[in-house]
Amino acid sequence: MITDCFDIETEPIINVSDFYGEKKHLVDVCLILYSWEIQEHLLNTFKCEKIGELGVCNGKIPIYKINYKGKDVAFYLTGIGSAVASSLCYEASWAIGAAKFIMFGSCGSLDREQTHGKYIVPTESYRGEGASYYYAEPADYIEIKNCHKLASIFEEMGVPHVLGRNWTTDSMLRETKGLVAKRKEEGCISVEMELAGVQAVCDFYGLELYDFLEAGDVLEASGYEVEGLHNANHDFGKLYIGFEVALRV
What is the DSSP string of 1-37? Predict the structure, then answer.
């Protein structure tokens, strides 16, 4: 079973150095992007330097660096889903040396009243995916360790936000009425597809993760509302909040 996959008693057969060689130390902070429009905006607006590359058999993912208000900050466009996003996070840390990752994307709202007009700072994430079980002992939820530190930064910056539990799922098409009701009963206010796995990988390898979300679509017993998803996916506001967080962590 998936709950048997956490093995820290034996050594891994495959190591990241087999693909990337010796670890590099180029930058300390890296933004994890989910929007190709945000990446295009960065490439067209700033002087960006390519400092690394994540290699997979179906293509290459470049890692860029910009200087934002005197601080070097890296960024890359990650893949969707817990397994992909978590693996790429660790590979990026090896390829460029970043130890602090700021991740922001869109999510579904499970509580319209709490999330409307606010960014979501997850406190815990339900592990409804697979990757986290290879990196953390079995449990229903994983703690998002830097949530209160990030919330304090948001308060300092005047960024409207709400803290609450999140649900990480591997399949948006299986977000059934029954599962939505269960997660809401447990206090979840949002649902997305990466956080639990990325947090587990960061915990395992000693990396710091700062995650916040913007609700786009809304999941309720009465139905599904998708109208706000595009704006939440590609909102440039998240990007500049991410940069300001990078200056403060």
Answer: -GGG----SS--SS-THHHH-SPP-S-SEEEEE--HH
3-state secondary structure of 221: coil
Report strand pairing: 49-56 vs 71-77. unpaired
CA distance 95 to 85: 15
215 versus 221: the higher-pLDDT residue is: 215
Residue range 12-42, pLDDT digits in tens? 999 999 999 999 999 999 999 999 999 999 9
Helix (H, G, I), strand (E, B), or coil: what is residue 212?
Answer: strand
Measured CA to CA, the distance from residue 249 to residue 239 in angstroms comes to 16
pLDDT in tens, 84-123: 999 999 999 999 999 999 999 999 999 999 999 999 999 9
Give 186's pLDDT tier (boundaries 50, 70, 90): very high
Total Cβ atoms within 10 A of residue 133: 20
Place of tokens 């693909």: 19
Q: How far apart are CA 165 and CA 122, in angstroms?
A: 5
- Residue 214 to residue 203: CA distance in whole angstroms: 23
| Domains present along the chain, CATH in parentheses | 23-248 (3.40.50.1580)
pTM for the predicted model, two decimal places: 0.96
